[in-house]
Amino acid sequence: MWYSAAANMLFIKHDLAKDFIMPLKANRKLALSEQAKRDGQWIRLDQLTLDAKTPLDIYLESVDFPLVLLKHVFANEDGRLGIQYLVSSDTALTFDHIATIYRKRWNVEPYHTSLKQTVSLEKSPTQTVTTQANHLCAALCAYIKLEWLRKTTTLHHLALTTKLYVAALHSAFATLRQFQPILWAA
User: Fold this and answer.
1) Among 94, 104, 118, 138, which residue's CB has the most CB atoms within a 10 Å radius?
2) What is the dihedral of CA 36, 38, 40, 43, to 10 degrees?
3) Is 73 domain-assigned?
4) Is residue 88 part of a domain?
């Protein structure tokens, strides 16, 4: 999971003039007021008593504007409870707004993960613009085909690519046996 950094927050808020919602690690230091920040009265996030779904205005170290903090408690796929801390630079947002926006953003993560891990977008050995463009197009086509297969088979991308690799290996060994009719004995 990608966690926020003060430099990223400052860049988005000041340079891009946009607001953001970001997850925070539980060990981040925060102040509960502007005065507490000036006095250096920092509290670790994981030591703060915070009710779920209750927004709290905070100040982070190295960030020069207030943020709203939310504790989001959710159930993982295996039934265990998870806790995620979210901050937003838009202090007028409610818990429901922040959770809805963050949930929409999360839908992009499986796409990026699949591009990196299953269709090898980042493992391109290419060096020219043309071959890089070809690799990008091939990776996007592979993603689209995997997504189509995912919807028709209910298998996730990694399971599908594993099945494809196993089938390719079986085919390669069958072809190899045709070239070498000698029985392989142990």
Assistant:
1) 118
2) 40
3) yes
4) yes
Model's pTM, two decimal places?
0.64
> Do 101 and 121 share a domain, yes or no?
no
Residues 119, 143 contacting (CB under 8 angstroms): yes
Residues 147, 91 within the same domain: no
65-69 contact pairs (CB < 8 A, 24+) = 65/13, 65/89, 66/34, 66/91, 67/9, 67/91, 68/93, 68/98, 69/24, 69/30, 69/45
CA nearest 22: which of 83, 96, 84?
84
For residue 129, give both structure tokens.
Answer: 């613009």
pLDDT in tens, 49-58: 888 888 999 9
Gyration radius from the chain CA atoms = 24
Which amino acid is it at 165? Y
